[in-house]
């Protein structure tokens, strides 16, 4: 008895007004379809079939091998879509049907749906809506048993008044589902093969329809337009904020954080307002993130303090480091423990050793800096000759005076000093002082030019 999932994703998504298939639009940094795949993963399915049609090539190339794609050449309805998967369904399978554009269904809800299934019953996820317009209505008999589902366009006024609607998600045994799908017709207002027609048939065959409800409407909310996408994005972000706080993170304002990927956090982390986290970000215990920081694929060690407006991408920051305000760590940056990187400093593809400081207005690129080295204000590593990139290598306890240019490739030995304003083009040995600044001239009694008298 294995579980198989069928995700319906062949529809066009016209209302998105997009060249991109709807299910590839992102919510919280992840494609809608990928959300659905993540949500059903907890059921440990043997196979996940995804029915695709519009933009099939794009969907396959972005979503990859985790699923088995089944093409529905013409979108003749939800029932027709599921029929495309029938050859892959065994009698003993338990099938769960989900929609590729409904991204926030909790794994627990799928599990409760699956728990309804046996050889005599189908599970159906329904929800009560204040405004049921547009949805298939759940018609029940006097005993409260589900009798059928009627689509909005086929419903009479009494049926339209029903507020319990079909979410589209259901679960059934393979044998039962295949039998019910075998002779669907399209004699309805839309001329489509409705998946929903299986319920009336099930009832006549003595198969019970067991319904379950989601914990909240957003679990079953679909994305049909960019407006709905934006609304669900807020829901997704609120959920993420809740779970961060539940895990011991203090958020200055849970409504002003955006996580577009995964954010791992230790204990007693503080995050100020308007921070964006993309890709995979990990914050160790006691990290403090100032306002307006953007972190993408970053790992921050214990007690790191990021001050306001720091931007970090593909970089690691060692424990106890202080970065910002207005600092930029670009890909390939690794700051060791207790380092300081201050305002208007850009670091790229560089390692900075323990306790070293780059505090003001510097560019450090393609560079290795040892421990306890001080890089003065305005220091530039000249890493690019117009064609190639070259490395700058500095030892421990180096002191680079302010406003120096280090023309790579160049090496500065341990304990060496570079005088302020120098342009260093040759290696400096350990403990040497290198200084290239022009000697100061003094002209006594110098008269500055004056404006002519009127
Ligand atoms: C469907 C249900 C309706 C339910 C509603 C919930 C049917 C007949 N109706 O209506 O009861 O209240 O969903 O949102 O099932 N799809 C395909 N191939 C097709 C047609 C659709 O893959 O040929 C996919 C779409 O991409 C979409 C999903 O199935 O992900 C639902 O299709 P849609 O046309 O939005 O269904 P509704 O008419 O809204
Ligand atoms: Ca439709």
Provide structural commentary.
Helices cover 16% and strands 33% of the residues. By secondary structure, the chain is an alpha/beta fold. The chain has 2 domains: 3-220, Spore Coat Polysaccharide Biosynthesis Protein SpsA, Chain A (Alpha-Beta Complex), CATH 3.90.550.10; 248-434, Hexapeptide repeat proteins (UDP N-Acetylglucosamine Acyltransferase, domain 1), CATH 2.160.10. Strand 8 (137-140) and strand 9 form a beta hairpin. The model has no long low-confidence stretch (mean pLDDT 97). The structure holds uridine-diphosphate-N-acetylglucosamine and calcium ion (CA). Residues 8-11, 51, 72, 75-78, 80-81, 99-101, 135-136, 149, 151, 165-168, 194-196, 222 line the site of uridine-diphosphate-N-acetylglucosamine.
Q: Helix count, per DSSP?
A: 8
Distance between the termini: 103 Å
Taking the sheet with the most strands, its summary is: 11 strands, parallel
Write down the CATH class of the largest domain: Alpha Beta
Structural class of the helices, strands and pairings? Answer: alpha/beta
- Strand content range: 25-35%
- Helix coverage percent: 10-25%
Question: Within the largest sheet, what's the order of strands?
Answer: 12-14-16-18-20-23-25-27-30-33-35
Question: How many strands?
Answer: 35
Summarize the structure.
Helix content is 16%, strand content 33%. The chain contains eight helices and 35 strands. The longest helix is centred in the middle third of the chain and has 21 residues, at 226-246.
Quickly list its features.
alpha/beta; Spore Coat Polysaccharide Biosynthesis Protein SpsA, Chain A; UDP N-Acetylglucosamine Acyltransferase, domain 1; eleven-stranded parallel β-sheet; ten-stranded parallel β-sheet; elongated; binds calcium ion
